[in-house]
Amino acid sequence: MNAARRGVVVQGGWIVILWLMHLALYTALAETIYTVKKGDTISGIAQRYGLSARTLADRNGLSRPQHIYPGQNLRIPGSIVSQTTTAPKSANLPTAVQTAINTAKVRSGRWRHIVIHHSAIDTGTVQGMDRYHREVRHMENGLAYHFVIGNGSGMRNGEIAVGHRWKQQLDGGHLATESLNHVAIGICLVGNFDKHPPSPSQMESLRILIRALMKRCSISATNVKTHQQINPVHTRCPGSKFPIKTFANFLSRATL
Ligand SMILES: [Zn+2]
User: Fold this and answer.
1) Residue 237 C-alpha to ligand 1 middle, in angstroms?
2) Ligand 1 center from residue 52 Cα (angstroms)
3) pLDDT at 68
4) Which has more pLDDT, 101 or 69?
5) For the packed helices 95-103 and 200-217, what is the interaxial angle rounded to 10 degrees?
6) Which domains are present in the chain?
7) How many Å lie between the centroid of ligand 1 and the Cα of residue 102?
8) Fewer Cβ within 10 Å of end Cβ, the chain: N or C?
9) How far is the CA of 201 from the centre of ligand 1 (A)?
10) pLDDT, averaged across the chain
11) pTM
12) Per DSSP, what are the bridge partners of residue 225?
């Protein structure tokens, strides 16, 4: 083997090594492991991750996919993008939020509507909004909403913050008339949804929060509205990219 030929072989070897490293790294990032729980089905798990049952069975070499057992580890193929944007797997509210909903002294018939807003700004915290509503909007009770859902900038993506207007059962300050503010629970999602839709985590948190509030306050799905749908004065809130159809679809299935 002459020197030139050896050079080609060595270079080729490096390319293979780099390619293998890339492949290993990509596979490590793109796959998650799911541990089967009692009552799980392969199609149920697949659906949760947006996969077909066939893809999931094939990835795990399951020749008889109906035979999975609790404790079994399954490889969930995915992508880096889908991992960072996947909604929380649990359909339950965080304990602290559920406790705040349960322990507030909600009078019977106190609330008639749940209204959804966007903050129209892509970064936000409860403290920042509270200060803005007190100092700029001169609202003595501060934060105009009862709940705020973060987008990963200022608050965690999908994080639900409980405002003091909920804890103390105070009227909201999020609608154009006092009579509406008197009967409407306000939920604000951080973000400008005229520019982009809310994150999947925000929507998942919104759905579980709404379900819990409907139940707690005996509010039917027809009384869950966007700001635009309920406000007597025209508003773009919660933005043209808020997924109104998917949301209406969710509400049509949400029962008390
Ligand atoms: Zn609004």
Assistant:
1) 5
2) 38
3) 84
4) 101
5) 30
6) 3-84 (3.10.350.10), 95-253 (3.40.80.10)
7) 25
8) N
9) 20
10) 84
11) 0.65
12) 115
Instruction: Spell out the residues 6+ positions from residue 194 whose beta carbon is closer than 8 angstroms to its own.
Output: 120, 236, 239, 240, 241
Q: Could you give the angle at the alpha carbon of 251 between the alpha carbons of 163 and 149, nearest 5°?
A: 25
Instruction: Report CA(11)–ligand 1 centroid distance (Å).
Output: 60
Cα(235) to ligand 1 centroid in Å equals: 7
Residue type, 89: K
Provide the 8-state DSSP code for 93. Answer: P
Ligand 1 centre distance from Cα of residue 247 (Å):
16
Dist. CA 64 → ligand 1 center (Å):
51
Confidence of residue 112 (pLDDT cuts 50, 70, 90): very high
CB atoms within 10 A of CB 68: 18
- How much distance in Å is there from the Cα of 218 to the middle of ligand 1? 23
Yes or no: say if 126 and 133 are a contact pair by the CB < 8 Å rule.
no
